[in-house]
Design brief:
By secondary structure, the chain is α/β, with parallel strands linked by helices. Helices cover about 45% and strands about 25% of the residues. It folds into two domains: about 1-130 and about 165-190, Flavodoxin domain (Rossmann fold, 3-Layer(aba) Sandwich), CATH 3.40.50; about 130-165, no CATH class. The protein has helices at about 15-25, 65-75, 90-95, 100-115, 140-155, 170-190, and strands spanning about 1-10, 30-35, 50-60, 60, 80-90, 125-130, 130, 160, 165. Strands 1, 2, 3, 4, 5 and 6 form a six-stranded mixed sheet that branches. The protein starts with a strand and ends with a helix.
C-alpha cells in the first residue's frame, strides 16, 4: 500500500514523530513517502491509499504549510484513508491531570480543523512536542518560560540539553501507529 506522511515542524519533534511512524509502517510493508511541507510541495495525492498529516502547534495554531496542505486537498481526502496528529505541550496537562486543558487543546488542534475542512480521519493523535527555548525569540521565550518552565519541572520533564525539553512518549507514538496499521488493514479488507 502506498502511504504519504506529510508534516510541518517548528523544533523537530513532528519530524522525529513522522520518521518513527514511517519506520513502523515500512516494517508493515507500506511504501512510504515522507514529506516536510516546509521543504517540498505535494502536487497530487491520488497515488496514495493512506495519508497521515502531522503538525507542530504554536499557541494552538497548526504549522501554516501543514494547514495549507489540508485546505488544498480537503476534497481529495474522501478517496483515501486519512489520519491526523499534532505535536504539542499536551503531556504537561496530562501529567497534571488537567482534563479541561487537554480537551481544549484537542478541540482547537484537531476537532476544529476536522470541521473546518470537512475531514473524515480514521484516527487522530495528540503527542508531545519539543520546547526549544534556544530557538525562540526573546519575547516568545520569556512568555513560554512564564507559562511552562515551572510546570515542566513539576511534572517531571527535564532538559535533554540546555534550554530543550522533549515531551514525546515514544511508546505512545509507536502504539498509535500500530493501531493505525490494524485499522487500515480492516478498512481495506471491507
Amino acid at each position: 500500500m502506498n502511504a504519504l506522511i506529510v508534516y510541518g515542524t517548528s523544533f523537530g519533534a513532528t519530524k522525529g514523530t513522522a520518521e518513527e511512524m514511517a519506520r513502523i509502517l515500512r516494517e508493515e510493508h507500506y511504501d512510504i513517502k515522507l514529506v516536510n511541507v516546509q521543504e517540498e510541495k505535494i502536487k497530487d495525492i491520488s497515488a496514495y491509499q493512506f495519508i497521515i498529516v502531522g503538525s507542530s502547534l504554536a499557541n494552538c495554531l497548526w504549522n501554516s504549510q501543514a494547514e495549507d496542505f489540508l485546505k488544498r486537498f480537503q476534497k481529495d481526502f474522501d478517496h483515501t484513508s486519512l489520519a491526523l496528529f499534532v505535536s504539542s505541550v499536551n503531556p504537561i496537562a496530562k501529567r497534571e491531570g488537567n482534563t479541561e486543558e487537554m480537551a481544549k487543546l484537542h478541540k482547537i488542534a484537531l476537532e476544529d480543523k476536522i470541521t473546518k475542512y470537512n475531514l473524515k480521519p480514521i484516527m487522530i493523535g495528540v503527542f508531545g512536542g519539543i520546547l526549544n527555548y534556544n530557538k525562540m525569540g526573546f519575547i516568545a521565550r520569556k512568555g513560554m518560560e512564564i507559562a511552562f518552565k515551572t510546570r515542566l519541572q513539576t511534572t517531571g520533564f527535564y532538559e535533554v540539553e540546555p534550554g530543550v525539553y522533549d515531551l514525546r512518549d515514544w511508546d505512545e507514538i509507536r502504539s498509535w501507529t500500530r493501531d493505525l496499521v490494524k485499522l487500515c488493514a480492516c478498512k481495506n479488507s471491507e
